[in-house]
Amino acid sequence: MILDQESGAGFASNDMFLFGQIDMKIKLIPGNSAGTVVAYYLTSDQPNRDEIDFEFLGNVSGQPYILQTNVYADGFDNREERIYLWFDPTQDFHSYSILWNLHQIVFFVDAIPIRTYRNHADKGVAFPRWQPMGVKATIWNGDSWATRGGRDKTDWSKGPFVASFGDYKIDACIWKGNPRFCRAETPTNWWNNDGFSSLTGTQRRWFKWVRRYHMIYDYCQDNARFQNNLPEECSLPKY
């Protein structure tokens, strides 16, 4: 996908899905990519939309790439987390995955879980579980906010900016109008089975490693933003 001064770009799945796993191979914009945003996400495209986001925020040459994740549930977001990637994502393709089931949402980078969002609907926390979502990817100019809060602008002399997408796999329940089929625990809907209801022991160790050494922003630690009234899920288990 190419971004220049005239236009961004994007693509989308033809089908909508309710639960499953999506894997996408991406190689990000090399060099000075300040101001650019490459996004890969699931979205229901409804007014009260559900959405599960990977957003890669461009950087000045030599600085680490920031990966921002976010979850919209019933139209509300404000659930941003940011990490520095522990490798150069412009040199080769890496796998970015979303596991979405009745129990949890898990974001993976090269099979390492970097974030979870659990289904705590029974405690009043919104969770995407009714609206089918399509897969989308876009590249666009976000220099009002993307790099150092908008202080570093897009240098169009370095363009056009190219993000490369490779192999992808969509192993998910195709929406046909009846949620019952997608919510069932069956061999086909493997993601709904108990083995995927939480992180494994090994996954928990990787999860803690990412959060200890690579996390740079967690909305659940931003008391100033929420005026010491953090969202309910921040006090609930992550796995």
Automatic annotation (TrEMBL):
- Domain named GH16 is located at 1-165
Q: Is Calcium among the key words of this record?
A: no
Recorded GO CC terms? apoplast
Query: Which EC number applies?
Result: 2.4.1.207
Q: Answer whether the UniProt record assigns the keyword Protein biosynthesis to this protein.
A: no
Q: Where is the major localization of this protein?
A: secreted
PROSITE patterns, alphabetized: GH16_1, GH16_2
Changes after translation: Contains at least one intrachain disulfide bond essential for its enzymatic activity.
Q: Which InterPro entries match?
A: Beta-glucanase-like, Beta-glucanase/XTH, ConA-like_dom_sf, GH16_AS, XET_C, XTH
**A Gene Ontology biological process term:** cell wall biogenesis
Q: Which PANTHER family match?
A: XYLOGLUCAN ENDOTRANSGLUCOSYLASE/HYDROLASE PROTEIN 8-RELATED
- Family according to the record: Belongs to the glycosyl hydrolase 16 family.
List the protein's name: Xyloglucan endotransglucosylase/hydrolase
